[in-house]
Automatic annotation (TrEMBL):
This is Thylakoid lumenal 29 kDa protein, chloroplastic. Belongs to the peroxidase family. The lineage of its organism: Eukaryota, Viridiplantae, Streptophyta, Embryophyta, Tracheophyta. CDD domains: plant_peroxidase_like. GO terms for molecular function: heme binding; peroxidase activity. Keywords: Chloroplast, Oxidoreductase, Plastid, Thylakoid, Transit peptide. It holds the Pfam family peroxidase. GO terms for cellular component: chloroplast thylakoid lumen; chloroplast thylakoid membrane. The keyword Chloroplast applies. Its main location: plastid.
Length: 350
């Protein structure tokens, strides 16, 4: 007697290991001959017992085959998603590299604005309110009504410098204009890198080549990874509320500590960010050293800056700026990426 089942999944049959096979087994199916041809499965049964090669066995085989097909298909989707992710990462990395280059040129051509660029980044982020989760490093300081506040006095020249840099950056961006929030924080990064490098050069007696080698070998340049991953800050469309940022040059240490505590920082972060609190870092640190909570940290970072690598000072400063520059932000990790133009192979001439 012959039994035949029509396959309901023709494309999957080629996945069966043996496309055409006649076997006779001595275990469960002692006398059955199974032949697979094209889109049919034919069974010749000659056994006299009731142990039949039944439809359930066929469905089990089909289920395994479908599972294999689904796994193979999902693998293709994963590969495509991974490829798209790698393309976006490359696009963002290349754009960020160009942004840093533009900012480096602007910063080093206007060294008198370095302290103001740091304070600009600090004050833009210091509007963060922990209770309401509002404010933060959102570019609000670009609005004239906020920039004209007493705590931001003298920062307009720094913002004007970044405005000019932004025009150049936007001209070569393929993924849209850079946000002010990103621009301001990456300018602060550029200032710190410039200061770290200048310190290394001084320790090498002014020899720029040796200073660069020292900074490359022992400096903190490799500590910026997390900061760079936060590329994609979003701009607010209105000024942040008033009264959230102290007037640093008139504030006492307690007022400074209170503000840093309010955003989730402490005496350690206040001490390490002394360069952000005004044009005269030495005078700021002398004031901070009068407070018993802040003084040990001021002394620690002063000692660190006397060492070859400045490791404690530079690493803690990078860590603090990384946290500060993300306050109030939901980073868009697809920002500045863009569609890749497809190549029409039909138009290629061989």
């Amino acid at each position: 007697m012959g039994v035949s089942f029509l396959s309901t999944i023709p494309p999957l049959l080629p996945l069966v290991p043996v496309p055409s096979l006649t076997t006779t087994t001595t275990n469960r199916y002692p006398s059955y001959a199974v032949t697979i041809r094209c889109n049919k499965m034919e069974i010749d049964a000659t056994a006299e017992d009731e142990d039949r090669f039944c439809r359930r066995d066929i469905l089990k085989c089909a289920g395994v085959t479908i599972g294999m097909e689904l796994m193979a298909s999902s693998g293709l989707f994963v590969e495509k998603a991974s490829a798209a992710d790698l393309i976006q990462r490359r696009q963002r990395s290349e754009f960020l590299s160009s942004v840093k280059g533009t900012l480096f040129t602007a910063i080093n051509g206007n060294v008198e604005l370095l302290p103001s660029l740091l304070t600009l980044a600090l004050n833009d982020a210091m509007t963060y309110d922990k209770a309401t989760k509002s404010g933060g490093a959102n570019g609000s300081i670009r609005f004239s009504s906020e920039l004209s506040r007493p705590e931001n006095k003298g920062l307009s020249a720094a913002l004007n410098l970044l405005e000019e840099a932004k025009k150049e950056i936007d001209s070569y961006s393929k993924g849209g204009p850079i946000s002010y929030a990103d621009l301001i924080q990456y300018a602060a990064q550029g200032v710190l890198k410039s200061k770290f490098l200048a310190s290394a050069i001084r320790k090498c007696g002014g020899n720029e080549e040796k200073g660069r080698l020292l900074y490359t070998a022992y400096g903190s340049n490799g500590q910026w990874g997390l900061f760079d991953k936060q590329f994609g800050r979003t701009d607010t469309q209105e000024p942040d509320p008033e009264g959230r940022v102290p007037l640093w040059e008139n504030a006492n240490v307690k007022e400074m500590k209170d503000k840093f505590v309010a955003i989730g920082f402490g005496p350690r972060q206040l001490a390490v960010m002394s360069a952000f609190l005004g044009p005269d870092q030495a005078a700021t640190e002398a004031l901070l050293a009068t407070d018993p909570d802040v003084s040990p940290w001021v002394q620690k970072y002063q000692r660190s800056r006397e060492t070859v690598s400045e490791t404690d000072y530079e690493v803690d400063l990078i860590t603090t700026l990384t946290k500060l520059s993300s306050l109030g932000q939901q980073i868009n990790y697809e920002a500045y990426s863009y569609p890749v133009q497809r190549v029409d192979l039909s138009k290629l001439k061989l």
